[in-house]
Amino acid sequence: MAGKFEVYKDRGGKYRFRLKASNGQVVATGEAYETRAAALKGCESVQRAAEGAPIVETES
């Protein structure tokens, strides 16, 4: 099974998303959105941006 995005309402009433790996572990979380539709667009943006994105190491 592939990973999945979950969209949910947080305690403050805002919508958020989390990306879960196939083993159920959360690997990424999104910011707070005012609407469910905006959170869904956030998921779509991550999907588009991640496809083919390089891994770049930076120094702290």
From TrEMBL:
It comes from the Bacteria. SUPFAM superfamilies: YegP-like (SSF160113). It holds the Pfam family DUF1508. Residues 10-57 form the DUF1508 domain. InterPro entries: DUF1508 (IPR010879), UPF0339_domain (IPR051141), YegP-like_sf (IPR036913). This is DUF1508 domain-containing protein. It comes from Pseudonocardia cypriaca.
